[in-house]
Amino acid sequence: MPDRAPHLLVLSGWAGVVESALELGFDVSFIGNTADFGPRDLDVLARCRHVRAIPAEQTVACLQAARLMHAEQPFHAAVSFGEFGLESAAVIADALGIKGLSLASVAATRYKDRMREILADHPRLALGWARVENAEGLAKFHARHGLPLIVKPVAGAGSVGVRQILSQAELQDVLNDADMWQQGGYLAEELIAGDELYSVETVTLGGRHAVAGISLCRLAGHPNLAITEISVPPPAPYDRHIQNISDTVVSFLDAIGHTWGLTHTEVKIASDGRPVIIESQTRIGGHRIFRMVEHATGVDEIATVLRSLLPGGEQVTSPHLPPTHAIGMVLSLIPPRKPILRAADPELLRDIKGVDDFEINVRPGEVPLPVADNAKRPGLIWLCVPDSAAAERTKEEIARTYWIEFEDGDVWHPSF
To answer: Under 8 Å CB-to-CB from 78, ≥6 apart: which residues?
Structure first.
């Protein structure tokens, strides 16, 4: 009798992860919300052993369902590559004694105060911080550290709820925001200034960390923390920081005890040139950064860690700081916020050399979504180009091709 395929539990995310696992030879079961899945996604799920439409962030319910499936056909591993399944995947792997994310590294990255506590023992990685439960706590932090500072939810994502504070007036606004303080605990930190943010995508196998790709993320600027453009790899002159950033992230992953899986870590450069860890998650980066990394370096992060779970997977390795042979990029559309009369057909973008994909959510009669964080956007356009000159040509062609006409008669073309 042939050996059974290893049984893999995938929590949350998109059907592409399930499809990759099936193609690699796993017997797959899925737990997660399927409400937004299209017909093709559902066809992929139909190939799974079990599908449980339980929100992956409901850890107790997910664990109960996983125990029942495990009793029928034991799991080999539990994985999640999206935001909402991380805790459940780690808890299930630990409870069932199977392979997967460790509780330690998920806790250290999911809860920002826990991460700062750990890094306090590593002076090169430390940053002034405090957990603040109310306005009084923030006022005390300000008295110790002064301005500028930043306040963020202890557990959050997509820059939602994050507030930069550069002035006394902004500080007073936050202190007086009663609705904000009813939401729970916050983390107050020293603010590392600047509108450039670096994202580091890593693959860790057997405790060995490999940087698969580094990107430069441009921010909209204070007070807006939204990312407007991402480029893998960083263009010159920002690429001068790559080695120092890479070394810092590897030290950080050692400090939190990360031994297996992907991480997405955000870094800023302090005024003294020191890379500072802003935050990290044991998952892929948003805005399809993993695809941009694959375009630029050829490293398929998800397939690599999945292969490491197969029999003989201990031999799987991932290159550290692989050379880049292309540029992966995403551009954000930020049109004025006023009623739309009509817009160019987004499908015209497919004819532009270098455009890889797009998601555009503007409709006549509507007002474009506000761009205040990284959760929702009026539009995103992904590029795959051979070099910086090609990227600029593609941007120019996008600006000529796509437009929005507003009810007041104004016509807007994107600029990048």
So the answer is: 8, 9, 11, 66, 89, 92, 93, 96, 98, 99, 100, 101
Q: What's the average model confidence in pLDDT over 85-106?
A: 97
Q: Of 396, 364, 369, 367, nearest to 383 (Cα)?
A: 396
Residue 235 DSSP label: P
Res 115: pLDDT: 96
Classify residue 124 by its DSSP letter. Answer: G
- In the structure encoding, which two tokens stand for residue 160, read together? 């939602």
Question: pLDDT value at position 227?
Answer: 87
Residue 29 is encoded by which pair of tokens? 């079961």
- Residues 157-164 have a mean pLDDT of 76
Mean pLDDT rounded to a whole number for the chain: 94
- Separation between Cα atoms, residue 282 and residue 114, nearest integer Å: 14
Nearby residues of 284 by Cβ (< 8 Å), 6 or more positions away: 81, 82, 201, 262, 264, 290, 301, 302
Question: Distance (Å, rounded) from C-alpha 34 to C-alpha 249?
Answer: 34
Secondary structure of residue 336 in the 3-state scheme: coil
User: What value, to the nearest 5°, has the Cα angle with vertex 12 and ends 9 and 16?
Assistant: 85
Contact 215, 198 (CB under 8 A): yes
Q: How far is CA 101 from CA 61, 83, 123, 315, 389, in A?
A: 19, 13, 27, 19, 40
CB-CB contact of 246 with 229 (8 Å)? no
Strand partners, 30: 10, 51
Share of the chain above pLDDT 70, in %: 97
Nearest one of 129, 146, 134 to 188, comparing CA atoms: 129
Q: Indicate if the pLDDT at residue 106 is higher than 70.
A: yes
Residue 387's Cα: distance from chain center in Å? 24
Residue 1's pLDDT is 36
Q: Is the pLDDT of residue 373 over 70?
A: no
Q: Please give the average per-residue pLDDT across 327-336, as a whole number.
A: 96
Phi-psi region of 288 (alpha: psi -120 to 50; beta: other; left: phi over 0): left
